[in-house]
Write a structure and sequence with these properties.
- This protein has helices at residues 2-15, 21-36, 48-63, 73-80, 85-97.
- The longest helix is centred in the first third of the chain and has 16 residues, at 21-36.
- The chain is mainly alpha-helical.
- The protein is globular, with a radius of gyration of 13 Å.
């Protein structure tokens, strides 16, 4: 999953050098997030290295947004209105359970 998301992210980066917040939201939700969350309720990564690989893709894509490159990860996510993938997995698991 991470490899496919990295390739899509590379394609987007080659086509669009400067991305603002609005464009990022559309591109992220349409092209990248589906690859990161594919079958996540059935397959939740148990190994720490798998989780870190997915989070690495998530960090790379948020750095592409104009003006957010040098900010810490948590600040970038807040400014973009996103959550970490770990928190999204937990949220999905809670919805599935209850």
């Amino acid at each position: 999953m991470a490899k496919k998301a990295q390739s899509v992210l590379g394609m987007v980066n080659r086509q669009l050098k400067i991305i603002d917040k609005e464009d990022f939201g559309i591109i992220y939700k349409t092209y990248i997030r589906p690859h990161l969350e594919y079958c996540i309720q059935a397959w939740s990564p148990n190994l720490q290295k798998d989780k870190m690989m997915l989070e690495k893709v998530h960090r790379r894509e948020t750095r592409m947004v104009k003006g957010l490159k040098k900010l810490p990860d948590e600040t970038r996510l807040k400014k973009l209105g996103l959550y970490s993938l770990e928190r999204r997995r937990l949220h999905g698991d809670l919805i599935e359970t209850f």
